[in-house]
């Protein structure tokens, strides 16, 4: 299979959605959309900046990204 509809094109996003559902969505019972949005924002912050990833040797994706792209690193973002 190649071209449009190739199964490998979606594997990364499907894994992200699965992780999001099992580590965040299924564990919380948000009452409103704004609560859900805040919860998801916090989870994505954790996922990208604090959660260790085995594919990156136990480092979060943001650390690996900024090590590879030091010239575009923001001065300070909290």
Question: Brief description of this entry?
Answer:
This protein is mainly alpha-helical. The chain has 3 helices and no strands.
Helix/strand-derived category reads mainly alpha
Element string (H = helix, E = strand): HHH
- Return the average pLDDT rounded to an integer: 82
SS elements, strand count: 0
Rg result: 16 Å
Oligomeric state? single chain
Query: Per the principal axes of the C-alpha atoms, what is the gross shape?
Result: globular
Write structural notes for this entry:
The chain is mainly α. 49% of the residues lie in helices and 0% in strands. It has one domain (7-72). The protein has 3 helices and no strands.
Task: Give the key terms.
single chain; 78 residues; mainly alpha; 3 helices; globular
């Amino acid at each position: 299979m190649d071209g449009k509809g190739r199964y490998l094109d979606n594997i990364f996003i499907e894994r992200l959605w699965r992780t999001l559902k099992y580590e965040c969505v299924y564990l919380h019972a948000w009452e409103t959309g704004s609560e859900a949005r805040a919860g998801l924002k916090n989870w994505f912050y954790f996922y990208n900046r604090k959660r260790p990833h085995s594919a990156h040797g136990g480092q979060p994706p943001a650390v690996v990204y900024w090590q590879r792209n030091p010239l575009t690193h923001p001065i300070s973002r909290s």
